Amino acid sequence: MAETPRSRSRALLWTITLALVAGLLLFKLLEALLVRVHLPALLADTVAAVAAAAFGLWLIHASVLARLHRLNAALRQVAGGDLQQRLPRSRADEIGELTASIDAMVATLRSNYEDLRRNDELRRRLIANVSHELRTPLTSIQGYLETARLSGADSADLQKNLEICHREARKLARLVQDLFELSKLDTQHLEFHFETVSLVEIADQVGLAFEQRMADKELSFKTSFPDDPLEVNGDGNRLGQVVQNLLGNATVFTEAGGTVTLSCEKRAGPGAGLAVLSVSDTGIGIAPKDLPHIFESFFHLEKSRSRNLGGTGLGLAICKAIVEAHHGQISVQSAVGRGTTFTVELPLLAT
User: Fold this and answer.
1) Quick one: the chain helix, strand, coil %, rounded to 5?
2) Interval 304-338: pLDDT, tens
3) pLDDT digit string (tens) for 18-28?
4) Is the pLDDT of residue 265 over 70?
5) Distance, CA of 278 to CA of 246 (rounded, Å)
């Protein structure tokens, strides 16, 4: 039978006990020879000493070796892949500190393993979503081109099919560009040109570009800006991209006769405070079950509507990445049938 760590420690314990007994007996015999101690008294003292030594060694085994055995058994389970294993808690001594340190290390390994699993799942979902998003426009282009080639369509039908192909090709181009930007944001390779910019000025410029689009859809477009320019350290083009995406979504998901509001304000916060930009609409709203996923890649609120209008499902994920690169945060509040408000908070520059 193979020798186990527990059997080795027990053998060591018995060896130490026998050595102590032999040493005590030798010491007492020498004492009897030199001091001429009465032999019965010598034997009684020896038995008492041996009993005390054995009891002390038993205490050492119970309080130290047994705890080390339990710790070793737990670590063997961890080494075997059981990262859910919790190491046995012990007293606040050296072994207890060792156990706490190892437990913290196992917790870190457990967290890293869960992160890897989540990343792997996200990677699989990304591949599936990209395949689906690419397949739809490619199928459309292929079908319309095949129809134009085989049907002998007149110039009007041919022009119609070419326009559809052109629209789908533009959708593909946007999807590829969004994927490229998102991948660079995820790997922190997208370049930002940080400088002092006015959030109010950025919002106002993007809002002006949307006025005609809002009018064409018969939407009421309102803006509210303070006199304070709300200066932040940011990339004006990237922040403009965020505002453009939020206004674009509000336009898509708000029916004719509805209202879209773009506003900026200053709020109390760390340092000099926060520059806050909000885009509100009276559109269809977002269901509570969808809110936790609204900033995920390829998430479509209304799949048929957003895809027909050229949405890639990456816009809000890109917005979130851009805002976080500016040390800010983006949030959403919504009620079905009443509308949605997206809020961007950025740290103000000290004046």
Assistant:
1) 60, 15, 25
2) 444 444 455 778 888 998 999 999 999 999 999 89
3) 566 556 555 55
4) yes
5) 9
CATH architecture of 128-186: Orthogonal Bundle (1.10)
Which amino acid belongs to residue 81?
G
DSSP string, 209-254: HHHHHHHHTT-EEEEE--SS--EEEE-HHHHHHHHHHHHHHHHHTS
115-to-111, 121, 182, 194, 291 alpha-carbon distances in Å: 6, 10, 19, 31, 22
CATH code 3.30.565.10 for 195-347: yes
**Sheet with 339-347, side-by-side order of all strands:** 220-224, 259-267, 274-281, 339-347, 329-335
What element of type H or E holds 77?
helix 66-79
Please state the pTM of the whole predicted model. Answer: 0.55
In the chain, where are the structural domains located?
5-88, 128-186, 195-347
Among residues 277, 213, 217, 205, the alpha carbon closest in space to that of 246 is found at: 277
Q: Which helix (H) or strand (E) holds 101?
A: helix 94-150
Structure confidence at residue 275 (pLDDT): 95
Residue 317: per-residue pLDDT: 85
Checking DSSP bridges between strand 259-267 and strand 220-224, what pairing results, if any?
parallel
Write out the two tokens for 78: 């961890």
Pair 261, 278: CB distance under 8 Å: yes
Signed CA dihedral, 198, 202, 203, 207: sign only: positive
Same fold, 128-186 and 195-347: no
CB of 323 within 8 A of CB of 332?
A: no
Q: Residue 351 corresponds to which tokens in the numbers above?
A: 């004046």
CB 90 within 8 A of CB 98: no
Angstrom distance (rounded) from CA 273 to CA 351 = 11
